[in-house]
Amino acid sequence: MDIHANGVRRHVDSTDRDSVNAAHLTPAQVRVMHGVRSGMLNRQIAEDLGIAEATVKAHMTALMRKLNVRNRTQVAIMAQSLAELQ
């Protein structure tokens, strides 16, 4: 894992789990987040979920806003960290 990813992981690990729960993610946003965690591209997530790629992009924008992260990598790391907590 590179230095940037380690820094992001520390940020995510220090995030209060209640604040993540307070993000109120929709079921569709959770499915998109799982796709990102799996390393899928927007196009692949769209095909997998049977939705338009533009819809995946809209979900990603909402995810980043709700989770207070800035990019796809941070969404993936957040999703992985949340999976490890469960």
UniProtKB/TrEMBL annotation:
Annotated ranges, domain HTH luxR-type: 18-83
One BP annotation, GO: regulation of DNA-templated transcription
Spans annotated as Disordered: 1-20
InterPro entries recorded: EvgA-like, Sig_transdc_resp-reg_C-effctor, Tscrpt_reg_LuxR_C, WH-like_DNA-bd_sf
Record SUPFAM superfamilies: C-terminal effector domain of the bipartite response regulators
GO molecular function: DNA binding
Compositional bias annotation for Basic and acidic residues: 10-19
PANTHER family attached to this UniProt entry: HTH-TYPE TRANSCRIPTIONAL REGULATOR YHJB-RELATED (PTHR45566:SF1)
The protein, known as: HTH luxR-type domain-containing protein
Lineage, uppermost ranks: Bacteria, Pseudomonadati, Pseudomonadota, Alphaproteobacteria, Sphingomonadales
